[in-house]
């Protein structure tokens, strides 16, 4: 166990000093999953239900946007820009929150393979009234957002740009997962921290969890399973994630010495690429549905949970160890990927049309 740099109360106090908008349903439940734990050879499994953060079917962005928008609004920004795949969870949650707070939301979605028929997240982003400025599939989201920001500034607006390429927003997103870890500790009892925390992460979520673990000096191991590989524009390397860790700690008033070697972010569940479901992921999705009644999504959380199943198979995670899976949401993607999900159910138990 490393040296404890901070106590729980002190961390809570530092978090409470940051500007924040409020709309998430917190704390989220921590579900004990004994049936699935037995299925995995006897691990003490818990699922942190951040798919239940509220706002448009929940997810980790709702929790993160409390700090991101808190910062943006307290610094005089008057609208928000996000851009990613058409089925972006971030875009959907931001659109809902924009509607609720009365802030204009501009999105630059890719017109990719999942933008037609309009379904899932893309449908909801429309429904919430975000202003959509679609770009060709594969064009740079970072450049599209920058161009749109420039255009809005010439109209006298002050846009805040979030998502890939916006380091400050990624750090604020991580802060939210320092708090999520404190919730987990409170729910488990401070003296019973988990041996492992697994989550699907492109950086911010695992960085925040790691900041909490490091500052509190806990032996908990944080594992992030990345839904994309280095070929993707939004991919964050372990070096980039370590920078988020250091800057997140700094924002809370601590100096942490964490480098890339201390960041465990795996790309072995990506499969053929971002947004393409894998067999192992769809198997995990079906397993959670049928043992615990919990829904995963085909793009993010199914791959994250497949990473946990793999760690159990390799005896990295051992029977009796306490494991928390942080469920980051993504529910609307189930509907945008209905065909793949059905196929994974196999011939016999799939409903016939
Ligand atoms: C965005 C997203 C992630 C990745 O979150 P980070 O904060 O970038 O790590 C994981 N899961 C789901 C469902 C997401 O929408």
Q: What can you see in these coordinates?
A:
- By secondary structure, this protein is an alpha/beta fold.
- It folds into two domains: 3-58 and 167-349, Rossmann fold (3-Layer(aba) Sandwich); 60-161, Rossmann fold, CATH 3.40.50.
- It has 14 helices and twelve strands.
- It has helices spanning 8-16, 34-39, 60-74, 89-101, 120-127, 141-154, 167-188, 204-216, 238-251, 279-292, 301-313, 333-336, 338-344, 346-349, and strands at 30-32, 44-49, 79-82, 104-107, 110-111, 131-132, 135-136, 159-161, 196-200, 221-225, 265-266, 322-327.
- Strands 1-2-12-9-10-11 form a six-stranded mixed beta sheet, with helices on both faces. A four-stranded parallel beta sheet has the order 6-4-3-8, with helices on both faces.
- Strand 10, helix 9 and strand 11 (265-266) form a beta-alpha-beta unit.
- Helix 8 (204-216) packs across helix 9.
- The chain is globular.
- The model has no long low-confidence stretch (mean pLDDT 95).
- The site of pyridoxal-5'-phosphate has 18 residues, from helix 3, helix 4 and helix 8.
Q: What oligomeric state is this?
A: single chain
Compute the number of structural domains. Answer: 2
Succession of helices and strands: HEHEHEHEEHEEHEHEHEHEHHEHHH
Q: Approximately what portion of the residues adopt beta-strand conformation?
A: 5-15%
What is the gyration radius calculated from CA atoms?
A: 19 Å
């Amino acid at each position: 166990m490393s040296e404890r740099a901070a106590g729980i109360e002190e961390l809570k106090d530092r978090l409470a000093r940051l500007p924040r908008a409020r709309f998430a349903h917190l704390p989220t439940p921590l579900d004990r999953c004994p049936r699935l734990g037995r299925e995995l050879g006897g691990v003490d499994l818990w699922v942190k239900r951040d798919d239940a953060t509220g706002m448009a079917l929940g997810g980790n962005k709702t929790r993160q946007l409390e700090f991101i928008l808190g910062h943006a609004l307290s610094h005089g920004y008057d609208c928000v820009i996000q851009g990613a795949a058409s089925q972006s969870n971030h875009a959907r949650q931001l659109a809902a929150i924009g509607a609720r707070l009365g802030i204009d939301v501009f999105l630059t979605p890719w017109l990719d393979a999942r933008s037609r028929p309009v379904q899932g997240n893309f449908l909801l982003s429309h429904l919430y009234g975000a202003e959509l400025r679609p770009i060709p599939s594969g064009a740079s989201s970072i450049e599209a957002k920058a161009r749109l920001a420039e255009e809005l500034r010439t109209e006298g607006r002050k846009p805040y740009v979030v998502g890939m390429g916006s380091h400050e927003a990624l750090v604020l997103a991580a802060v939210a997962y320092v708090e999520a870890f404190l919730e987990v500790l409170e729910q488990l009892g401070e003296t019973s921290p988990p041996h492992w925390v697994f989550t699907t992460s492109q950086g911010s979520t695992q960085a925040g969890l790691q900041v909490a673990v490091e500052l509190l000096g806990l032996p908990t191991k944080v594992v992030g399973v990345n839904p994309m590989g280095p070929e993707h524009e939004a991919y964050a390397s372990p070096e980039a994630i370590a920078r988020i860790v250091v800057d997140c700690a700094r924002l809370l008033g601590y100096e942490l010495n964490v480098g890339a070697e201390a960041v465990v972010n795996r790309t072995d569940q990506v499969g053929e690429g971002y947004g393409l479901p894998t067999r192992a992921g769809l198997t995990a999705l079906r397993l959670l549905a049928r043992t615990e009644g919990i829904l995963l999504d085909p793009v993010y959380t199914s791959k994250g949970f497949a990473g946990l199943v793999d760690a159990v198979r390799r005896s990295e995670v051992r029977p009796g160890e306490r494991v928390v899976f942080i469920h980051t949401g993504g529910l609307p993607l189930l509907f945008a990927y209905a065909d793949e999900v059905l196929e994974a159910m196999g011939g016999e138990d799939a409903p016939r049309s």
